[in-house]
Structures are given as C-alpha cells and as structure tokens.
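User: I'm putting together a teaching handout on how sequence relates to shape, and I'd like one worked example. Could you take Aldo/keto reductase from Lentibacillus juripiscarius, show the sequence you're using, and then write out its predicted structure as tokens right after it?

Assistant: Happy to. First the sequence, then the structure tokens directly below it.
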Amino acid sequence: MIDNLQDTVTLNNGVQMPGFGLGVYKVEDGQMAVDSVKAALKTGYRSIDTASYYQNERGVGQGIRESGVPRDEVFVTSKVWNDEQGYDSTLQAFESSLEKLGLDYLDLYLIHWPVKGKFKETWKAMEKLYQEGKVRAIGVSNFHVHHLQDLMNDANVKPVIDQVEYHPHLTQEKLRAFCEQEDIQLEAWSPLKRGRILDEPVITDIAAKYNKTSAQVILRWDIQNYVVTIPKSTHEERIRENTDVFDFELTEEEMRQINSLNKNDRAGSNPDNFDKV
C-alpha cells in the first residue's frame, strides 16, 4: 500500500509507477491544462495521465516543462484513441502524442478502449514501441476480463495496467481478482463517479468520523484496495485536498461497508458497448 504521494507500485515489468496521480480528462488545452499540471507537480504529484482523445497533450507537456520538475521524475501516461487503432496508425498516433507533449518517450501508453477487430494489431504496434524503448510500459484501459484473455492469447508482452472506471458503485470484483492473479495493476478512472457518489450516507458518516471529505474517504478506499487512482481537478486547492489521504486508515469494517455500496453502476460506457464514446 502506498503511504505518501511519491510512493510507487512496481508494475509486472519492474517499472515503478506512482500510486496516485492527476487525471486531465475534460481539462481544456492551453492555460488551464498548463496550470493544472503545474499545480499538481508543485503539490508533489509525480504522475500525469492524459490521452490523445483529451486534446490537451500540448498543454500537459508545457505544464511539465514549466514546472521545473526533471522529466525523469514525472510519470507520463497517454492513450491511443479508437479511430487511431490498427498497427500503422497506432505507431503514427504515438509519434503525434510524443510531438504534442514535447517528450522523447512515454512512461506508459494504453489502448483507450478495446476496439473489436483492432486491439490486437494495436497491441502489436505497442509491443514494437516498447521493445524499441520509446515507452517504458504498455497497458490497456476499459478492458473486461474476456478482452484481457483474448489479448494475452496472442501477446508477447503482458499489459502492466488495466485502467477502468472504478468507484464504490462499481467495485469490479471479478476484474480485480483476475488482474491480481495475472499481476496486472488495476487503475481507477472516475474514482469519484464524476461527483455522483459523494452524498452516500455510508461515505459521509465515515468522512465525518475522520474529519475528511467524502472524496478523501473514497480515494483512501482506492489506496487500501491497492488500486492506483488518478482523480481529476483543475483547482489547485482541490488538487491539494485530494492528496490529504495519507494520515488516516479505514478499518476493515469501513472497507466492507464501502465495498457493499456496489451497484455495478457506471458513469461512463460499458466496454462491451462503447460505440458512442
């Protein structure tokens, strides 16, 4: 379990990744992206998660450069979007992401969604990028167990990460167990269910007990479940507040109570049906 903001988890290829980071989905490119990244790095974050689909890679890269934090201390993730998938187009998409970010390499590159008939070719391209040292680790996002099994049947390199929607209304127990068994790190996007879970009485009661916010309780729950988490915010105060989760610990009973809130309810699309993503 990570005990501070710089603590890392060791991925299955030996690369160390911070267990807590900043997500920048729907953060506008330009000054907003620059300022969000700079605020996070100033606070002590060392992991930034973006994607070509977010259209803010330029701002993210600028924020990293302007922060003054050495490049080798920042763990940068990006993702290949659905219409970029396929072998050659993935290689092109990667180069485009690198150019926009202004970086020489990525720490982690993910398949954003499991596009049927495409994701295996996409993975072959990502294996090439990995073998050439252009990316330190490769993984996937929004893959169910059956997608992971299908991918690994033909893969030479095992994914290090599956980044999925994960929060107390969607605890992904089957996927968590499979990833643990396969040594694939689970990572949470939308850990706060886009704000729709903050009023849950179980969570507000626990928050009151520890003098914490509901968001802090949920992020602590992620950490204690050994799930890497990347909450998004554009406000420096909230970016700081989200990290204030290392000075308390939820009891086993409180973890059980939060786990029991599961409804298999998504804020985003189901990976088996994401045509409108």
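A couple of points you could highlight for students: The chain has ten helices and ten strands. The radius of gyration is 18 Å.
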